[in-house]
Amino acid sequence: MTGFDYDIAFSRNLGIVSTGEHAHLRDSTVAIAGMGGVGGDYLISLVRAGVGGFHIAEFDEFELANFNRQYGANTHTLGRRKIEVMLEYALEINPELRVKIFDNGLDARNVDEFLTGVDLAVDGMDVFAVDMHPLLINSATARGLVTVAAVPLGLGAGVLAFGPEGMSYEDYFAISPGMSEEEKIIQFALGFAPEMHHLKYLDPQSINLKARKGPSSIAGCKLCAGFITTQALLALLHPHELKLVPWYTYLDARLNRFHHRRLWLGNRNPLQRLKSFVAKKRLERASGSGDGG
């Protein structure tokens, strides 16, 4: 069996990155919160991009409902901890990885340790984890770190980057403590996809915010992985090219609609406030229709 050689294994990256940049990636450490629908794919993609160190956090186990989209979900991993499975997959690609695991997930007690010694934070947590996203992003920003995040939306993806020189999490999403959990989720998703193209073909009755369930697609997850890998490379190698919020990127591959622009005032933009109201009412009507059936 051929022995592992980093320079040969990832040599095809050269030409897109320089030899010096590749060495920098090997010495870099990226913190990824979440190893599920998108986070697991982020880990594998960044390993293949040449990143040499990771902090990874996840508490969950694989289940049958994960099979349609999650990198590590298959008949051999049912019931196994996601973080252990994804660590195994990553080490099979690069056995020299430096990895620190947080197998109880991310919380206020370990976020400082999670972010210590890293060069970039990546938010790969479930869209419904409304209180965990600001914990990670605000903690990273306070340390002077950039956080990149993406959300799969139908057959598309929305992408954001946060950092000390951009808008704060609270200012961009306009999420207030008095909002319900459902309202926070709507605000969060709206910030990633201001045009909401995916709502043109999603069945609203398939979305249940109270039960924290919604439709998902491998297409959206793979788009997220591609975007996040690119954003991570920019953050680590060309930070001057990275555009922080209120800039956003949103692609719907089904409708061939792409947007990369600045969202003035974030979700406090008057048009965004109207969209938030419309989305909430639409989901309420769908929920009522479903209950009546």
How would you describe this protein?
With 293 residues, the protein is α/β, with parallel strands linked by helices. The protein contains ten helices and eight strands. The protein has an eight-stranded mixed β-sheet with strand order 3-2-1-4-5-6-7-8, sandwiched between helices. Helix 3 packs parallel to helix 4, helix 3 crosses helix 9 and helix 8 crosses helix 10.
* CATH architecture identity: 3-Layer(aba) Sandwich
Contiguous uncertain segments of 5+ residues: none
Strand order in the largest sheet: 3-2-1-4-5-6-7-8
Beta strand %? 15-25%
The CATH first-level class comes to: Alpha Beta
Supply the number of structural domains.
1
Q: What do the pLDDT scores average to?
A: 94
CATH topology label? Rossmann fold
Percentage of residues assigned to helices = 25-40%
Contiguous helical run count: 10
Task: For the record, give the distance between the C-alpha atoms at the N and C termini, rounded to a whole number.
Answer: 60 Å
User: Total strand count, please?
Assistant: 8
> Which radius of gyration do the C-alpha atoms yield?
19 Å
Output the structural class.
alpha/beta
